[in-house]
């Protein structure tokens, strides 16, 4: 991966290549992603949207179905409430995966939570 100071297009290329390499190595049958959200910082939300887009593209290029979950759906499925805090999500990911500690950083726990949401039954209606 390139350093943070590199241009967004260069970093997106790296993310895309890393995603393809992971898909090829791990051979998943599908990909689960969190739907876009409206963050407090518009620039951060936009950059995350670009990164999410290249991940979805990588999955599509490998013929994998992509399952999308809203943040509240993920929290509801994994924690039991759609208003769960990051700490609660981390705790429940630790519990479900029988880990000694929650994944770090919190974004790693969030990613695990999206996968768990899919494995635990997907979207709640």
**What would the principal axes of the Cα set say about the shape?**
globular
Unreliable stretches (pLDDT < 50, length at least 5) are none
Strand count, sense and closure of the main sheet? 2 strands, parallel
Number of helices: 5
Class derived from helix and strand content: mainly alpha
Give the neighbour order of strands across the main sheet: 1-2
Helix content: 55-70%
Proportion of residues in extended strands: 5-15%
Order of helices and strands: HEHEHHH
Mean pLDDT: 90
* N-C termini distance: 38 Å
What is the strand tally? Answer: 2
Describe it.
With 125 residues, this protein is mainly alpha-helical. The chain has five helices and two strands. The chain has a two-stranded parallel sheet with strand order 1-2. Strand 1 (31-34), helix 2 and strand 2 (66-69) form a beta-alpha-beta unit. The model has no long low-confidence stretch (mean pLDDT 90).
